[in-house]
Amino acid sequence: MSDTVLKEYKDGVLLLTLNRPQKKNAINNEMWVAIREAFESADEDPDVVCLVLTGAGDDFCAGVDLSSFGDTEGADSAAEHPFDACARAIAGFGKPWLGAARGAAVGGGATILFHADICYVGESLRLRLPFANLGLVPEFASSYMLQANIGAQQAAELFYTAEWIDAVRAVDCGIAARSFRDEELLDKALEKAAEIAQWPVNALKEIKATLRLPHKAHIEAAFTAESAAMERQAGSPENIEAIMAFMEKRPPKFR
Q1: Nearest to 96 by CA among 159, 36, 48
Q2: For 46-76, what is each residue's pLDDT tens digit?
Q3: Per-residue pLDDT reduced to its tens digit, 144-174
Q4: Is the separation of the CB atoms in 24 and 104 below 8 Å?
Q5: How far apart are CA 145 and CA 129, in angstroms?
Q6: Where are the domains of the chain?
Q7: Out of 10, 50, 109, 158, which could bridge 193 as a Cys pair, Cβ 3.0 to 4.6 Å?
């Protein structure tokens, strides 16, 4: 597996660490493939009972690596894009998994957490859903998952404003279950994972299946709707203006 995702196993718990700290763990195509393969392998491995996903360094994940937009590594024109394949693998993961996020969690680095069964955050968390300000739309079935997790009005507020969310608000609104000091975050997540992993894996899989059943059709519908909307918005005048403004370090002019 790529060294952009590190694996560490102990007593039924698999720790996955996004490992591009010099890029704030921004995800390129190679990394999407590595994440997908790690989740798929863990799903099939009878020794893995619970999974924990975290980021190396001071940040969880700054989202998609903008420099990888033209990168074809890991991509197959006849198959799903690595991002889409990874998103579906995570949405379909059949065992409990926990997110442990501190620092930046932006775009795909935020929406991936909405699929965690339990999400813990560090006090330095800075989470953002930068879709409206980029002239784009939500992805990773987040248009459904965020509403399912925190309610329609709060989800709409966060999507429409693209505002920054700190650890206190993440817990208060229901994005995260609990907040910890940065230095204890991973230990606390691993402790909870070990607590879960003491139970029989098949029982946990059945419990997760019952919890997720009411959401499956809605998640699939969200993937389809988001993909169509992204095709309409990507490369649109407002999307181009947002990117140009970002590159030129100026406020965008959408009016």
Answers
A1: 48
A2: 999 999 999 999 999 999 987 765 555 544 5
A3: 999 999 999 999 999 999 999 999 999 999 9
A4: yes
A5: 13
A6: 5-183
A7: 50
